[in-house]
């Protein structure tokens, strides 16, 4: 038995986040806040939301359930220096960082011929540049701290196929770029014991999808597309993120987990 084998820790058999400090971009509300809630319910020591906006009632409710465990820092993910400053503050405050969820994103659905350059820049600025900068800042921190870190991107089912009802070529392209980025970064950073994966949500019940079940033919759509006949609750995504952030996934890298209820609408 080699020395490296003898000192190698035994594989972790339970999916939990005990003692871990998790950073989630765009977690003041919506999917990000749902991920934060799930991380805390699975034992995370602290969760930090890095968001350009202010917190609201939803964030306050989660904070009340986990006093002293969830925090929010303001930063602009499209500016790497802004993300760097936030992560530096988190490490100063918590002493470490073990996981980064690159979740902040924008969406806009309209015909490709109608998109303005400004709208495309806004989508790609947050979804692509913001995700890349957040991941790179986290990787540098993991390497410096000697942490076997985990990075999880929020991709989308739109990266696999277009939403037929409300298409968005720039949005789908940005999320397909995220999934491709996952494979390359996983390959590059494996030497540092950093794992890189993604989760692709389908239709999730958030402020951005309120209109979906209000369509007059929504029930007919569900019958046509099949699958679980409803939108996902944000908390139903959490298990995928928790697994990928946990030490139980120590040999899991470069994958995407679709959480779509088999609905073929997008």
TrEMBL record:
Coiled coil: none annotated. It comes from the Eukaryota. Pfam families: adh_short_C2. The keyword 4Fe-4S does not apply. The keyword Lyase does not apply. InterPro entries: NAD(P)-bd_dom_sf, Sc_DH/Rdtase_CS, SDR_fam. One of its GO terms (molecular function) is oxidoreductase activity, acting on the CH-OH group of donors, NAD or NADP as acceptor. Keywords: NADP, Oxidoreductase. Belongs to the short-chain dehydrogenases/reductases (SDR) family. This is NAD(P)-binding protein. It comes from Aaosphaeria arxii CBS 175.79.
């Amino acid at each position: 038995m080699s020395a490296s084998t003898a000192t190698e820790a035994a594989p972790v058999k339970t999916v939990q986040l005990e003692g871990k400090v998790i950073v989630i971009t765009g977690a003041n509300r919506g999917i990000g806040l749902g991920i934060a809630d799930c991380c805390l319910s699975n034992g995370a020591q602290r969760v930090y939301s890095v968001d350009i906006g202010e917190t609201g009632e939803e964030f306050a409710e989660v904070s009340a359930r986990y006093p002293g465990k969830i925090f929010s820092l303001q930063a602009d993910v499209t500016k790497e220096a802004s993300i760097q400053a936030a992560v530096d503050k988190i490490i100063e405050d918590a002493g470490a960082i073990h996981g980064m969820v690159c979740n902040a994103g924008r969406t806009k659905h309209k015909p490709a011929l109608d998109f303005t350059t400004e709208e495309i820049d806004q989508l790609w600025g947050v979804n692509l540049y913001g995700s890349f900068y957040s991941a790179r800042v986290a990787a540098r921190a993991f390497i410096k701290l000697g942490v076997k870190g985990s990075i999880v991107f929020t991709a989308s089912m739109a990266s696999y196929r277009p939403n037929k009802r409300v298409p968005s070529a720039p949005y789908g392209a940005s999320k397909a770029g995220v999934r491709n980025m996952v494979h390359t970064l996983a390959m590059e950073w494996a030497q540092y014991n950093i794992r890189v994966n993604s989760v692709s949500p389908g239709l999730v019940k958030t402020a951005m999808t309120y209109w979906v079940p209000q369509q007059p033919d929504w029930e007919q759509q569900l019958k046509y597309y099949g699958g679980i006949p409803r939108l996902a609750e944000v908390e139903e995504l959490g298990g995928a993120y928790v697994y990928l952030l946990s030490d139980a996934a120590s040999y899991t890298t470069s994958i995407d987990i679709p959480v779509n209820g088999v609905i073929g609408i997008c």
